[in-house]
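Hey all, quick one. A colleague (J.T.) asked me to put the 1-O-phosphono-alpha-D-glucopyranose job into the tracker so the inputs and the structure tokens live in one place instead of scattered across chat threads. No bug as far as I know, just bookkeeping. Sequence used:
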Amino acid sequence: MTRIRKAVLPVAGLGTRNLPAAKVTPKNLLNVFDRPILAHVVAEGRAAGIEHFVIVLGRGQGAIEDYFDHAVELEQALTDKGRGELLAALTGDLLAPGQMSFVRQMAPLGLGHAVWCARDIIGDEPFAVMLPDMLMDASPGALAQAIEAHDAVGGNIIVVEPAPEGETHKYGIVALGETAPGFRGRLRRMTGMVEKPPPGTEPSNLFISGRYILQSGVFEALAAHSRGAGGEIQLTDALRARLDQEMFHALAYEGRTFDCGDPLGLLRAGVAFGLKHPSQGAAVRAALTALLAG
Ligand code: G1P
């Protein structure tokens, strides 16, 4: 089975639900406890064996490139002050030179268009897509679980989970067929998918939650630039167009998802990651207990 080496992370987007916090800070640089959302997602990708990250940016998001580069003066100052631990935390998020590419989407035409912008860097090999608004707390990580499924059955793997009651119209929703052997019954053939179905028309309550393993053939479908839900070029539509030529499985991964695209999701993620922080978890628990006691 071809190894999954590259991941596309579309980060463009106004972050409307997180305004005004996301007014001058790119939405994926907002904080989840001790580091930006995006750093947590890149860490999940690295733990799954991803070697090259393609970050698809919008205008005004240059701070994301700076985050993943050396901050020479800051690093020197920490060295001079003997703050080795902090320095290690800072540089630990950096990849080796050449392992991260930045592509400008240039026009906000939708998720499918953002992924299509990465086509030349991905080339002709299967790859991962990680939606960085969705932070997934799992062990092994959500992407590692998807790659394990890909190693077993090949084709395309789409991570899904039950949508909150009454919210299927906000997401990509899948239709499922038979269960694949193994994976504790969590891997099923996919027979259909639809982006943001009107209430009452959804084929199931399972939504596409933000981790994908895709075959490069999707770029052919995306090249048509067909508009779908919301007038946008939708990744879900391009994948549906490949359903009769390629195999698709949906994986109900084991873990917790935080939608960091709104203030409550971001807060829940910050609390959850704070509570399990190796050195500060106990202090977070004590602070929360005190706050809740009023
Ligand atoms: C995108 C995808 C959708 C998926 C969702 C998960 O939608 O198009 O299929 O369910 O992310 O967050 P968006 O949130 O960009 O509207």
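Adding what we noticed when we looked at it: Residues 8 and 115 are 7 Å apart (CA to CA). The chain has eleven helices and 13 strands.
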